[in-house]
Amino acid sequence: MTATRLPSHPLRLALPLVAAVAIAVPLASPVAADTADGTADLRSDLDALLADPALEGALSGVAVASVSEGDVLYENEAAAPLIPASNIKLLTTAAALDVLGAGHTFTTTVSAAEAPAYGRVEGDLYLAGTGDPSLTGDAFDRLAARVAAAGVTEVTGDLLADDTWFDTERLAPDWEADDEPYYYAAQISALTVAANEDLDTGVVNVTASPGTAEGDPVDVELDPMAGNLSIENAARTGAPDAEATADITRAPETNVFTAAGVLPAGGEPFTDLRTVHEPTDHAVHLFAAALEERGVKVLGDIGRGTAPGDTVPLAERESRELGALVLPLMKLSNNGHAEILVKAMGRAAAGEGTWAAGLAELGPALERIGVARTGFEAHDGSGLSRTNRLDAATVIDVLQAVQDEPWFGTWERSLPVAGVSNRMVGGTLADRMRGTAAAGNVRAKTGTLSGASSLSGYVTSADGEELAFAVINNEYPGAAPRGVQDAIAVRLAEFSRWSPTTSGLAARTDDSPSAPDADLECSWAGTC
């Protein structure tokens, strides 16, 4: 994926519907009375920020509430149902922690049709998954080592992958087909491979390295490589001053990866992530290679099959608890993890690992948490779907209600923190709001699609007052208005209820300390 590609197509939103709903459904809590100049100043400044040219013609749902005082400080189209992008992950993760529990783990098992005798398994060997998003190549190697440690040296039957914990629908029905090759739209399976330390699932690292002289071959690698993948290399090394045009693509519904284009001699390699077709097949082939490395020979084929209920367990891997796994999900806005949680919720609550069953649990879970509002419509768990709808007032309700949950501390720590360079702290906000009152203070979830951008979370005011805020922008004319969003967050960090504030941020300029506007946030461009 290149740094100029938008992750989806232009916004399609029914304006009359939004306007009607925004008028008919007012924010539940009344706006607080002007108790001090500081509150009036805040509203004036936020109005001015929303009048920024970057938002000309846009729809902006904004709400600010005081968690400490329990009042609403500001609202603008707060009940308008807008495309939330990755802000929907706030709902997905909160619901998952309610339905599954912060202590939930994902188990991957290896079992045999019969107990091994004298190192030999008569019959088939089964690899069964329950959606673990942290199964790296090393994890498969350790599973294989445990099989070998159980005394197995030979399997007379097949090695079969059992991914029936989830259904076989790999992509959400309304995702854009053009997104499918890119890592943020990877296929979802109950048995998948995490390709890197960020735990990006259903993908491989692709690398094309030029030779040292013009005409030299280009070295192409996939990692983790497995027997279900193949490479066709048509790339070439050009002159040292040649333009780098190399790319690695995958033919639809295959695992044939083709390298093409030119890399300048002695230049930098081309690197990126690309999705695989049928992650289950990739996982079982990777496990087969690990077994061979550990001295376990499989005489039969590699395929898929459902493990019978009377198989003999040989090895098991248990993931970290959900409370830990939610951190990379939220910090780096991992779409695949969010969709795995949706299907895991469906399996746990309804016995069906499907999008339909999992998404049906969002409303009841939020009600149990204490969110009375129903201002959302979810078609996936990650925010990649352009049919999702969410209003700012509902986001505020969620941000307030979760504070009474036993897992709140875990959930809040998973939010990106503005201006903190450590990527597992700052996440998608690492380069935003540096050098401002919001740096190290704002804890919030980002979101970006073409024509839809959002920022919602918490900020501590100048008086130490805890505020919850939600900003959802749709239909803006140019790049994502993250400069405006950042200016709003900074203004909230400087807010004092009891004294007037004159920060000057109401007139945002291009040299604002906020991060510059851009078409892609780091989670889409793979640069977090």
TrEMBL record:
InterPro entries: Beta-lactam/transpept-like (IPR012338), Peptidase_S13 (IPR000667)
Top-level EC class: hydrolase
Family: Belongs to the peptidase S13 family.
Name of the gene: dacB
Signal peptide from the UniProt entry: 1-24
SUPFAM superfamilies: beta-lactamase/transpeptidase-like (SSF56601)
Keyword annotations: Carboxypeptidase, Hydrolase, Protease, Signal
Protein name according to UniProt: D-alanyl-D-alanine carboxypeptidase/D-alanyl-D-alanine-endopeptidase
GO molecular function term, any single one: serine-type D-Ala-D-Ala carboxypeptidase activity
EC number of this enzyme: 3.4.16.4
Coiled-coil ranges from the UniProt annotation: none
